[in-house]
Write a structure and sequence with these properties.
45% of the residues lie in helices and 17% in strands. By secondary structure, it is an alpha/beta fold. It contains ten helices and eight strands. The chain folds into two domains: 134 residues, Rossmann fold; 101 residues, Rossmann fold (3-Layer(aba) Sandwich). The strands form two sheets. The chain has a four-stranded parallel β-sheet with strand order 2-1-3-4. Strands 6-5-7-8 form a four-stranded parallel β-sheet, sandwiched between helices.
């Protein structure tokens, strides 16, 4: 079979909401030689989100056009699909999310990495049980994220949901605010921190806080890309991006 001139090891289709400005630069920063990312945008308007009902409407809007976006991406014949959106893949717990992911894989004909399962895999490497979660979501989604991690066997000790006012507003949360939340949440009862919400920019901050607090920090975009690389048998290890890429 002929190989792509640049993506000779792997071509990733990466899909995220059209409002998302963080996934693409985050995942491009993690590319290794011979791997290329081919970005697809799931159409969603920059809806106002003021309560649980409006957040559910946002999730439904993303879900309604997900397959159309994936179908466009598949025309470049990618080897693997990377989900750059996470709320839908936490919804209704682990079993429902696994079925949703399998349905998507069956539809597009390639395997899929989703942030929820990537975070689970990353946490399992740390032997952590008691976790603190930070998210940009509203309570209805935070409950689904909590349920997912509990289904995976983790104890969600603390949860900080930021209730961002729109999809675009998620990417406008600055590092200083996120750092303050982490420091307020930290105590001896927490083994590890997890950040969900792919449009929340925490990859760099998680590296900083892991060094400062001496606890594992799982940033969803890093975990998802690591999970996809390893699923494709790409085992490159490199420094500067945390223990997932350096040691596993």
């Amino acid at each position: 079979m002929s190989k792509d001139a640049l993506g000779w090891r792997c071509k990733f289709a990466v899909v995220a909401p059209s409002t998302n400005t963080i996934v693409q630069p985050d995942m491009d920063n993690l590319r290794v030689e011979g791997v290329t990312n081919h970005f697809g945008r799931i159409y969603v308007p920059n809806m106002k989100v003021r309560n649980d009902e409006e957040f559910v409407a946002l999730v439904e809007a993303i879900g309604s056009t997900l397959y159309e976006c994936v179908d466009r991406c598949m025309t470049c014949q990618p080897d693997y699909l990377v989900m750059g959106m996470s709320a839908l893949m936490f919804w209704d717990g682990r079993d429902a999310s696994e079925k949703r992911m399998q349905d998507l894989a069956d539809h597009c004909g390639v395997r899929v990495s989703a942030g929820s399962f990537a975070c689970e895999a990353a946490l399992n490497l740390t032997n952590s049980k008691r976790i603190a979660v930070i998210s940009p979501y509203f309570p209805v989604s935070d409950k689904n994220v909590t349920r997912f991690f509990q289904d995976c066997g983790f104890d969600v000790v603390k949860f900080r949901g930021l209730k961002c006012a729109s999809p675009v507003a998620i990417a406008e949360v600055q590092a200083d605010e996120l750092r303050k939340h982490v420091l307020e949440m930290d105590d001896d009862g927490i083994d590890a921190f997890v950040q969900v919400g792919t449009n929340l920019s925490m990859v760099g901050l998680c590296l900083e806080m892991e060094d400062k607090l001496g606890k594992p920090f799982v940033a969803i975009n890093s975990a998802t890309y690591w999970h996809a690389l390893r699923a494709m048998g790409i085992m490159d290890q490199f420094s500067g991006h945390g223990p997932l890429f350096k040691n596993h």
